[in-house]
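Extended Data, panel c. Modelled sequence:
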Amino acid sequence: MALILIWVSLPLVPAIDNQSTLIVQYMYDGEEDTKKKIVLTAFGRPAFVTVTVDRNGKVEKNTFEISNEDLSKFWNGFSEIDAVSKSKIVDESVVVDTETHHVFMTMDRTSEGDNSSWYGIVKEEGSEEFLEWLSIIDKK
């Protein structure tokens, strides 16, 4: 599935607190016959993650609570993990495909204002550090 992204975003990931509203959506279809979507929601606390995996039409869904520590670690990864921070989409003409890219959309509302961003990590650039970071929300 190809996505054409037109998005305006700020360069920094704002700090989160217990009053922040966060939504992260992850999409990746790069494994054979498997489509994965993960949604993290934090409307205050606690925060929850829902993982949906479609394998040849058989859909499995798992929802779990994420700790504040893991939430902060995951959120900070957007600016601290090289493979992620370098993949922020700022050019509105960029096209990413969920079969070749790990695609993230982030939205947050803090006391500093609203922000939204897109990230497209090329499958081959998914470093060990990136995969470890992703495992915070991608519980098997």
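The radius of gyration is 14 Å. This feature is highlighted in the accompanying rendering.
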